[in-house]
Amino acid sequence: MNTKKGRPKKKPTYNEEIIMQELLSAISDAYLTGGNGKGETSPPAVSLRQIANEFDITLMKARKLLITAGVYHTEISEEVNELKAEGKTIEQIMELTGLKRSSVHSYLPYTKSIYNLKELSLYAERCRLYRARKKAVESLRELESDSSIEDRLWDAIRIFAGYRFTTAKSLVFRYTVFGNEIRVDRKKKSIVRSSVNMALKKVIDVDGKIRGPKELGVYGASYLYPMFQRFGLIQEETKKF
């Protein structure tokens, strides 16, 4: 009797439909709530570009996914879909709207998902990461000056490692975390945890009303400021996500 087992699978099996639904649910939540668990807003809490940054995808793919989810509506998206419903071809829609082929496709919802294993794995991971980041942000919703908030903030910082942030001066950066240090890709010197805690104390003291990086008063403030904004610690009406 041959008891030899077959070669184990190197990669897990992904359910394409389930992953697509999870992706649409996550991207819709991010668009409508800003990923902070505070409920849907009207107009949407964030921009299309912010969604693209959140899930590390192109603007066109972000738009197509949001349209597929039924939460993104603009005058041009409605026009393109109405023309398609009337039986117009992509070429005819291009001629009538003046849009390029790629743009026309980005305004039409997915009718089926055709992703390879690598893409399915990537989207599954991004959905998992989005949920983890949202949970971390929700844990910081209440600015309570207790012993646990510093740990909760550091947990959020760790889970957002690799996230695409933008400074007040429009400089894009990402960071990694090693022990009690934040290493920003635009800066040689690390931001230590004690500086983060000092900035947090300042935010708590003024109830989140910080008007700019300088008010944090610590080394690395220009990077901590957008991070704190994303975490919902700094309340500023003109800045979102």
List the helices and strands and how they pair.
Blueprint: H1 16-33, H2 48-55, H3 59-69, H4 75-85, H5 90-97, H6 101-106, H7 117-138, H8 147-159, E1 165-166, E2 172-173, E3 175-178, E4 181-184, E5 191-192, H9 193-205, H10 221-230
Antiparallel strand pairs: 1-2, 3-4, 4-5
Helix pairs in contact: 1-3, 1-7, 2-3, 7-8
Question: What structural keywords apply?
Answer:
3-stranded antiparallel beta sheet, disordered C terminus, 6% strand, 2 domains, mainly alpha
Strand order of the largest sheet: 3-4-5
Q: Helix count?
A: 10
Distance between the termini: 62 Å
From the spread of the alpha carbons, the general shape counts as: elongated
Q: pLDDT under 50 segments (min length 5)?
A: 237-241
Mean pLDDT: 86
Query: What is the N-to-C succession of helices and strands?
Result: HHHHHHHHEEEEEHH
Biggest sheet features: 3 strands, antiparallel
Task: Work out the radius of gyration.
Answer: 21 Å
Helix share, percent:
40-55%
> What percentage of the residues does DSSP assign to strands (E)?
5-15%
The helix-and-strand class reads: mainly alpha
